[in-house]
Automatic annotation (TrEMBL):
Residues 1-22 are annotated as: Disordered. It comes from Myceligenerans indicum. PANTHER family: ABC TRANSPORTER PERMEASE PROTEIN MG189-RELATED (PTHR43744:SF12), ABC TRANSPORTER PERMEASE PROTEIN MG189-RELATED-RELATED (PTHR43744). The chain crosses the membrane at residues 34-55, 98-120, 132-151, 163-185, 206-231, 265-286. The keyword NADP does not apply. This is Carbohydrate ABC transporter permease. It is a multi-pass membrane protein. Keywords: Cell membrane, Membrane, Transmembrane, Transmembrane helix, Transport. InterPro entries: MetI-like, MetI-like_sf. It is found in: Cell membrane.
Amino acid sequence: MTATSQRAGRRGTAPRPSLPPAERRRRLDLHRSLTTVVVVLIVAVQVYPLVWLFLTALRTPADFASGNLFALPGEITADNFVRALGTGNLGLNILNSFVVTMGANVLIVLLGTMAAYALTVLGFRLSGVVRAVFLLGIIVPVQIALVPLFIDYSYVGLLDTYASMIIPLAGFALPMSVYLFSSFYSYIPGELYEAAMLDGAGPYRIFTQITFPMSLNTIVTVVMVNAIFIWNDFIFANTFVLSDGLRTIPLGLQNYIGAMGNVDWTATFAAVCVTITPLLLVFLVLNKAMIQGLESGATKG
């Protein structure tokens, strides 16, 4: 009797028999098959609405109104895109959304990286308290700020401007951005900063020449995550924009609502296809850097 069997006998339990190689391979293949099925189902659930959107944008209005909404197009037409571009100021709406998205992301990256650098790398008394206050901003709902911001903007003349949308969008995105940057900075070796200081580099030079360039993947992650929400923002634009010239994409889609609330659905779907395509292409190009940024920063925190 082996020592393992003797110990198992003293404990009153029999040793667990090992599975034969064929049985282990069968269980491993079953596990892989189940994992593949689950992944395929998740991908199908995520991709199907996008495919349905593009297919519906190619259907004729009569086909959409009379046929099965989830069937393949009986007749394909590009008139929906022509009508979408002609009905509303779609080009101007895209430009406004681009300006707001870029402006807010510039503020988020600049303020987020500098705040995280001060909290994590430089450090100061009560820096932990300041970081906790930043994180508390994640749970603050944006709706409670609409009325105070509207009153303040009316006093300082910021209503119906790009700044009226950019400032709150950047402000509410800062807590999560500071958390992501802080998580990444905490894993940069301290010896790197010590070597830079021995070479005579000050805190500003260390930030601009070492910390900020090393944050490229995290910056891409922060920009892409926030760009999706900023590009699709409706609540701030609907509250602070008063003129048609500053309408963003979510507000511009209201132009396809006709008399008595009738909606030109096929033209609306075509307009949505046009507006999501730039963001989708950028996401497909930068998704590798975004994943690397999440792995190097967010998941380590």
